[in-house]
Amino acid sequence: MLQCDQCSIEQTSHEKKIDIQQLFQNPICKINNFPPLKTQNKNQEKEIKDCLQNFTQQKILEYQNYVMNQIDLFYERAEDSLINSLYQQKLQTIQQFQNLFVFSNIEEIYNIEPLKQNLKQFEQKQINQEQLYKYQQKLKKDFEDEINQKIVLEQKDIQQEINQQLKNLQQQLDEKVDIFSQKIEINKDFLSRLCNNKRQINSQISENLQNQFQQSNQTSPFNIYNFKNFIVNEKNKQKGVNEFWKQFDHKSYSIWHLKYNKIEGEGEILYQTSNLKDAFQQKCEIYKLNAFGTFGVYGEEGNYQIEGVWVWKGLEIPEQFKKLPEFEYYSWKKLDHNKQEDKNLLEEFWTNMEYDKSVVQGMVARDVQYYK
Description:
Residues 206-372 form the EF-1-gamma C-terminal domain. There is one protein chain. The model has no long low-confidence stretch (mean pLDDT 84). Helix 10 (224-233) packs antiparallel against helix 11 (237-247). This protein is an alpha+beta fold and 372 residues long. The longest helix is centred in the N-terminal third of the chain and has 44 residues, at 57-100. The chain has a six-stranded antiparallel β-sheet with strand order 6-3-5-4-8-7, with helices on both faces. A two-stranded parallel sheet has the order 1-2. Among the domains are: 2-55, no CATH class; 128-174; 223-371, Translation elongation factor EF1B, gamma chain, conserved domain (Alpha-Beta Plaits, 2-Layer Sandwich), CATH 3.30.70.1010. It contains 14 helices and eight strands. The chain has helices at residues 5-8, 20-25, 42-54, 57-100, 106-109, 113-123, 129-143, 146-181, 189-215, 224-233, 237-247, 270-283, 319-322, 340-351; strands spanning 2-3, 18-19, 253-260, 291-300, 303-313, 330-335, 359-360, 363-371.
């Protein structure tokens, strides 16, 4: 698969080789003849190189930030549009209700002040009894007028209609709010197919790893593969931890607490912190055959921390981890299985994995996964 500069001139095989110098000097997407393909297909080779260039962890993170910013922008626009629409509807509704206020001044219809004045005039002998009587007759006729009675009774009908329209308004607004309260669903068909494919691939990988593990020469009585299957499927995690202490082989395996050392600006937003965790854990899969643990994001908005407790075959940090670019950003502390404090730390991480409920080291668990 590989060749050096000196032997490249002598190369006569039709098999495409990878230049060792390019392997060290070029980014992965710029290395000729990489990755090696079973069938020589230039289009497929180009597509794979494009993916290697455009889907690095950094570019995926940048793309995710772009998508999140777009979602924020869409909702900001929708919010502005809704606020403006509601304001215009409010003005129109107020005008419509104002048009309903057609109340009459019934105090004028049944105004008795003139009658009082006539009585005072009669007492002061400014008018005689006959004049007072005539005025009373006229006033009585006005009060008995059926039209006036209808006008008065109509006021109650107007009020009832306004109250009914208020109820209708509230109902219509509630219905509109309910529409926006409904969950927005994106098309999950593609995601479902992708997950099914991934499950099939992971199942095949797991089967291959199990075969490799069973075929390897083990000198330790601790079968970590069987233990992983046991604790992951055991609902009572404390029972799983108790079984771990029974089986743990301190001569062949070691326990470690790892913690990400944040820099300024990191650990403030949950999904970004989860991306950091996932990117590192994905790279650590090179050693997961011989390891197990929990790894998660803990804390509150603005102050998230990435931590975990792992156990692996070997008494020191594997070279596979040390070669990772992110290795230096983590603190690695070896735990002593004889110290109760260290045992408690493992149990705390391994038995508290419920999102937004479990508490580990005083921090709420936000995004916790097995490393297995």
